[in-house]
Amino acid sequence: MRPGPGPPQQPRPRRRPAQRRRHRPHPARPRPPAGALRPGRRRPRPAGRPRRRTRPRPGGRRGAGHPARRHPGPPHPARRRARLPPRPRLGGPGRPERLLRPRPPGPPPGRHHLLRHPDAPRHAPPPAPGARPGRPAARRPRLRPPRPAADRTPVDTDADAPGAVSGAEFRAEVGAGPDRLLLCIVTRLVSGLEKDAGVSRTIAALRLLDDPALVLAVVGGGPSEAHLRAEAARANEELGREAIVLTGQRADPRPAYQAADLVLGMGGSALRGLAFAKPVIVHGAGGYTAVHEPGPLVEPHASRCMYGHGDHPADAKALAAQIRALADSPTRRAELGSWGRDWVVDRFSLGHVSTAFEEIYRELLRRPPGRTAWLRDLEQMSRYEFVKPTARRLLGR
Q1: Are 341 and 275 in contact (CB under 8 A)?
Q2: What is the C-alpha separation between 360 and 367, in angstroms, rounded?
Q3: How large a percentage of the chain has pLDDT more than 90?
Q4: Rounded to whole angstroms, how far apart are CA atoms 166 and 259?
Q5: DSSP state of 314
Q6: Which of 278, 228, 235, 283 is nearest to 253 (CA)?
Q7: What does DSSP assign to residue 75?
Q8: How far apart are alpha carbons 210 and 228 in whole angstroms?
Q9: Contact predicate 35/45, CB 8 Å
Q10: Which residues contact 273 (CB under 8 A, 6 or more apart)?
């Protein structure tokens, strides 16, 4: 006889996945007292030292690869910020509160006590004036006397002076009568420092002006003389007159300076033009042209020895405008000539430059330069003597 159906069986409880087992509360383990030796430790933990808490590493000793022991990964940045304690507002973010403690009553302490950091040892040297607590003092710059500018080209202002020589013969040679304005360039006709480019730009400016009263005389010789003569011949043919004359090299160019009404050039040539009390237009690299007159360009011209850098090498309109402005104003030419003569005598005369050299020698004897200064001078000399000529030869200039 079969037994009847028994009581209904209860469904078996469903086990939770292994990933949730880690959230079960563990029984609290009694912590050993401070100083007691726990099992597995070789030496006791100090009483005032906090207990270090670490996270379980993935794949560690306990259950490597077990889903219940797997590292959950770093929390979200928002949750991490939410778990951080609030910052103290009294001292500012990350600033200890003791730096802002009130001053004790009584006479004010000394300067060094106010500037010394609270945690700094007493044997530390006092900070420099102007330093803040907790911050390093700024390094005091080493003050040196200003070095005199002895890298200037000296000018013999006694030999190069108005009336020292006669310029009538030179004017007659180039065909500049009393009613014409003579422009003079005394230079080496070479590609270095774009000297030949300055002559070409002046020829182009005379083409743009097309003024029968203007005559350009170029004194000097060099490798670029042949193509400059050809360019001058084309310009004279286009203008229908002999407006540009190349006289070649001269042993004494002073008659050209004396005969000129306007001098154009760079370096020592421009300085000698100023010494003869003539207005000067300074040439430079990249199409630079500027009238040397009182203003912001005086110091740059003096520091670069009457030289400049421009950004319009093929444009002669600016130079044509400068020549026209000086040609139409004899009064301005006289004022610039008188001012230029005084300026050269005060800054580029032989007496001034020799005094500057003497001061440099005395300074070097008093404070000899170190190895760094010697290496810097060697680098500059090698760059000027070897690197620049090699670059010109490679570029075919």
Answers
A1: yes
A2: 10
A3: 43
A4: 7
A5: T
A6: 278
A7: P
A8: 19
A9: yes
A10: 184, 186, 257, 260, 263, 265, 280, 340
pLDDT band for 382, please (50, 70, 90 cuts). Answer: confident
Count, residues in the chain: 397
Are residues 116 and 133 in contact, defined by beta-carbon separation less than 8 angstroms?
Answer: yes
Tens of pLDDT along 30-67? 666 655 555 555 555 555 555 555 555 555 454 444 44
* Strand 181-186 to 262-265 pairing: parallel
- Picking from 143, 151, 140, 139, the residue whose alpha carbon sits closest to that of residue 367 is 143
Instruction: Quick: pLDDT tens for 225-251.
Output: 999 999 999 999 999 999 999 999 999
What's residue 28's pLDDT? 60
Instruction: Give the sheet arrangement for strand 262-265, strand by strand.
Output: 244-248, 214-219, 181-186, 262-265, 280-283, 289-291
pLDDT at residue number 4: 57
| 293, two tokens | 């007159």
- CA dist., res. 160 & res. 167, Å (int): 13
What distance separates the 2 farthest-apart alpha carbons in the chain? 158
Residue 303 to residue 280: CA distance in whole angstroms: 17
Cα(248)–Cα(255) distance, integer angstroms: 14
